[in-house]
TrEMBL record:
Pathway per the UniProt entry: Amino-acid biosynthesis; L-threonine biosynthesis; L-threonine from L-aspartate: step 4/5
Annotated catalysed reactions: L-homoserine + ATP = O-phospho-L-homoserine + ADP + H(+)
PANTHER family, A to Z: AMINOGLYCOSIDE PHOSPHOTRANSFERASE DOMAIN-CONTAINING PROTEIN, AMINOGLYCOSIDE PHOSPHOTRANSFERASE DOMAIN-CONTAINING PROTEIN-RELATED
Gene, per the UniProt record: thrB
Protein name from the UniProt record: Homoserine kinase
UniProt source species: Methylophaga aminisulfidivorans
Keyword tags: Amino-acid biosynthesis, ATP-binding, Kinase, Nucleotide-binding, Threonine biosynthesis, Transferase
NCBIfam families per record: PRK05231.1, thrB_alt
Domain Aminoglycoside phosphotransferase: 27-244
Enzyme class: transferase
Family assignment from sequence similarity: Belongs to the pseudomonas-type ThrB family.
């Protein structure tokens, strides 16, 4: 989340007039995250998150809002969009597609996760993957293998010799990724610690579904492992990893193919976020409040996976 598009108070009041949410009390830009413009909005009848979409058009966005609504209806603790008086989830504000989403209680995890938090994320992700098999809409992962190769080509000239060689080697290793025979379905694809809300040790909600797509379920799991299960040094922590994976596999055991390709998938997940953070750092976008996250964190994790594959002994 960031603020790239400034919203004036009068424009927001007019926007809210199409909803049955009361009168505007206050609003504040959110600096966390890096993709869309976001504001906390408080009205006389509730609290919401306003999102202005910086990269997607109206035709694309219905999918994301449908995903959010689907998981909410399936009992997954997740944010859900507010419909306007015509029953529509998506509108326009400041020339951008915009949605108003109910703000859930709790806060994101800003430091290393506790074992209890890791376990709850593992269980929630398993519930999402099981329920998601009934979701009918389809959308390819826009940050999949093709994007990773194309992005690498734009970044190579700005890398040092060592990083360039590592990137070329990793992409060569992952040439077969797209053809793996692994269980797939709708995934969050970005379930980081700042995209889940907790009240103490209790999970209150999962947010920011705007990278949701059809992917390997193991990839979604690996994205979570690469963020939730790290220690203070930014490397995988065995206890956190055990806590998350044990709770996940109690509900959805990994297939033999997922186990055989687990290291490749973990590396693909690390590579995806190394590349996206490099892109944001090397080709920054202007904004009032923006956050560019450190790409080296995922280079660190990728190097670790290349040298030390994660154990599958978590039962």
């Amino acid at each position: 989340m960031s603020v790239y598009t400034e919203v004036e108070r009068d424009d927001l009041i007019a926007f809210l007039g199409d909803y049955s949410v009361g009168e505007l009390v206050s609003y504040q830009g959110i600096s966390d995250g890096i993709e869309n413009t976001n504001y906390f909005v408080t009205t006389s009848e509730g609290q919401f998150v306003l999102t202005l979409f910086e990269h997607h058009d109206f035709d694309e966005l219905g999918y994301f809002l449908d995903v959010m609504t689907f998981f909410y209806q399936q009992g997954i603790p997740s944010a859900h969009p507010e419909a306007d008086q015509q029953g529509q989830y998506l509108k326009q504000l400041c020339g951008k597609p915009a949605a108003l989403v109910v703000r859930l209680p709790g806060r994101g995890v800003s430091s290393t996760a506790t074992l209890a938090q890791c376990a709850q994320i593992g269980e929630a992700m398993a519930d999402m993957h099981i329920a998601g098999q009934q979701f009918k809409a389809r959308r390819d992962n826009e940050r999949g293998p093709v994007w990773r190769q194309q992005t690498a080509e734009t970044i190579y000239p700005k890398l040092d010799t060592e990083q360039s060689a590592l990137l070329r080697n990793e992409l060569a290793y992952q040439q077969g990724y797209a053809g793996l025979d692994l269980p797939a379905g709708v995934t969050h694809a970005d379930l980081f610690r700042d995209n889940a809300l907790f009240d103490g040790e209790n999970l209150t909600g999962i947010i920011d579904f705007y990278f949701a797509s059809d992917e390997y379920l193991a990839f979604d799991l690996a994205v979570a492992v690469n963020d939730w299960c790290i220690n203070d040094e930014g490397l995988p922590d065995p206890q956190r990893y055990q806590a998350l994976m044990q709770r996940y596999t109690q509900k959805r055991p990994l297939t033999e193919a997922e186990k055989a390709n687990w290291n490749m998938v973990c590396r693909a997940a690390a590579l995806r976020f190394w590349l996206s953070r490099l892109q944001d750092k090397l080709f920054p976008r202007e904004g009032e409040l923006t956050q560019i996250k450190n790409p080296d964190a995922f280079l660190h994790i990728l190097k670790h996976h290349r040298q030390h594959p994660l154990s599958l002994d978590f039962n």
